[in-house]
Amino acid sequence: MNNRFLFLSLVVALCHYVSVAEESGNSSSSLTLRAVNLGNWLLIEGWMKPSLFDGIPNKDLLDGTQVQFMSTKLQTYLSAEHGGGSIVVANRTTARGWETFRLWRVNETFFNFRVANKQFMGLESEGEGGNNVVANSDSASSSMETFQIVRNDGDPNRVRIRAPNGLFLQAISETKVSADYEGSSWEDSDPSVFKMIILTESTIRGEYQITNGYGPEKAPQIMRDHWNTYITEDDFKFMSENGVNAVRVPVGWWIAQDPTPPKPFVGGSSKILDKAFTWAQKYGMKIIVDLHACPGSQNGNPHSATRDGYQEWGDSYIPLTLATIDFLAQRYGDRPNLAAIELMNEPRRMDLGTLKKYYQAGYDVVRKHTSTAYVIMSNPLDRDSKSLLSFAGGFNRVVIDVHYYNLFDPKFNSMNVKQNIDYIRNQRASDLSSLTASNGPLIFVGEWSGDWSVHDASKEDHRQFLKAQVDVYSRATFGWAYWSYKCDSNNWSLKWMIDNNYVSF
Q1: What b-and-e string marks burial along 218-250, b requiring 16 or more CB atoms within 10 Å of the CB?
Q2: 3-state secondary structure at position 425
Q3: Alpha helices for 370-428 (secondary structure H)
Q4: Is 347 left (phi over 0), alpha (psi -120 to 50) or beta?
Q5: What is the pLDDT of residues 411-445, one digit of tens each?
Q6: Averaged pLDDT, 273-277
Q7: What span, in angstroms and rounded, lies between the C-alpha atoms of 497 and 466?
Q8: What is the pLDDT of residue 313?
């Protein structure tokens, strides 16, 4: 009898130990993910399927497009003096930051022009000289900041700029630009004619650009057709049958305001995410809901749904961001296959104290609705991978997300096949090891891919590169997620990689 009691006591103690270990977040014995990102599904990344943008009129002039205007008469560039806060002149023979304008698209031909210091070009009020062109408005909320770009039929980069008063801008002299020209000539000698240079290397193709580009009449159908066809139940079946046990689903902050999110975003993505949970449950898969696009943009990249490439997220945006986390945690917190909620994707160029304040508050919001889902904190892109270690160690069931690409850094440009693979097996392995502690947060390689800077690599080269990454990233205590499931570029498409026997799990 005493032996039986002792045995039962040991069993109870062991169960309690396992439960405590799992709750602490220091054990991943039951949750090591082999996941894939469902990129470009509920959050558009135009480079992954460029054809989505084909039907947009003037698609080379979307939100955030950077343009420069050279007077054909003076052969000098329009410039916001001092980068903004003053007049607009035409006195530069070369174009740099002050001579570059970022477009905010009103419709296919009308735009606001944002200058280097983030102010907007406009006309002075009538009492101050209504034809004078200035760049001193902190917003584009009035009609005085809206201009029309009129393109020449024979040369679309030969333009005239119609001001809010209905007249055209003209470069009268290098120091005098006014909005009072009524002519209609396209000759080089015409002071209202400009050569428009589009800085294509800075093109943005994200959710803001596609929805605002198509406009409120067409965008809803375009987006819903995409959601319903890009990822389907068959894809979850395929993933499950090929060893993938989880998906990371990027979403934008406006999902919390369904069914009528702020313009230009389209409502309905939350219902598609509901379907993803149902399909994942059917095929035994977990889901990470990843807040990939935060209000104001947390990094200025297209995948953050930025309007013009500026990173503006900060203290003032924390309440709206937390409202999104609250929506996600409340809606999905009791789903048995919710693995985690990621509070933010790839923050960059922000105060670490502000980020930690948000992460603390975001953790608390998630815990209001679920005690079992993990909370993922993305490591800042521009900081050491250990920057959150001590901070995250103070929470239960918390994960640090690091992203590993053999790209986006000049050091990878000259690496050959062997050097890339050695870098994975040595440097990446060492980095992961340094992040892993028995009493610390779990580690997640939330993004990696089969793309690299090696040219003319063989199929076997690719296979070995992928295998090295799977081998090393499988040591991450929370697991890994490939970017992405589908992509027009084969090296970024896990489905293509699996179908063509480049990788298996």
Answers
A1: ebeebbbebbeebbeeebbebbbebebbbbbbb
A2: helix
A3: 389-392, 417-423
A4: beta
A5: 999 999 999 999 999 999 999 999 998 889 999 99
A6: 98
A7: 10
A8: 97
Assigned token pair, 70: 């050279």
Q: Give the integer Cα–Cα distance in Å for 392 and 352.
A: 13
* H helix runs in 169-308, sequence order: 207-230, 233-241, 269-282
Tokens of 415: 């690496």
Phi, psi of 464 (to 5 degrees): -70, -35
For residue 243 the two structure tokens come to 């060893």
Buried/exposed code over 305-323 (b: 16+ C-beta within 10 A; e: otherwise): bbbbbebbbeeebbebbbe
According to the model, what pLDDT value does residue 129 have?
54
Alpha carbons 19 and 304: distance in angstroms, whole number? 37
Kind plus residue range of the DSSP H or E element containing 460: helix 459-473
- Residues 261 and 264: their CA atoms lie apart, in Å, by 8
Strands 66-71, 286-293: pairing is: unpaired
pLDDT in tens, 215-245: 999 999 999 999 999 999 999 999 999 999 9
Whose tokens are 């309007």? That residue is 307
Separation between Cα atoms, residue 414 and residue 155, nearest integer Å: 40
Please tell me whether residue 453 adopts helix, strand or coil conformation: coil
d(CA 37, CA 57): 31
Helix (H, G, I), strand (E, B) or coil at 348: coil
pLDDT band at 184 (very low <50, low <70, confident <90, very high): confident
C-alpha 249/C-alpha 260 separation (Å) is 21
- Helix 318-332 / helix 352-369 crossing angle, nearest 10 deg: 30
Cα separations in angstroms, 316 against 312, 313, 347: 9, 8, 16
Quickly count: other Cβ atoms within 10 Å of residue 169's Cβ: 27
DSSP state of 380: P
Measured between alpha carbons, how far is 47 from 483 in angstroms, rounded to an integer? 13
Classify strands 194-198 and 158-162 as parallel, antiparallel or unpaired.
antiparallel
- DSSP per-residue string spanning 138-155: S---SGGG-EEEEEPSS-
Q: Which residues pair with 402 in a beta bridge?
A: 445
pTM of model > 0.90: yes
Task: Say how far apart CA 489 and CA 82 lie, in whole Å.
Answer: 42
pLDDT interval class at 277 (50, 70, 90): very high
104-137 pLDDT tens trace: 999 999 999 999 999 999 998 654 556 899 999 9
Peptide bond into 484 cis (omega under 30): yes
Query: CB neighbours (10 Å) of residue 32?
Result: 16
Instruction: Please report which helix (H) or strand (E) contains residue 399, including its range.
Output: strand 398-403
Q: What is the DSSP letter of 350?
A: S
User: Side chain identity at 356, as an amino acid letter?
Assistant: K
Strands (E), 31-189: 33-37, 66-71, 77-80, 86-92, 101-105, 110-114, 120-123, 133-137, 147-151, 158-162, 168-173, 176-181
DSSP secondary structure code for residue 424 in this structure: I
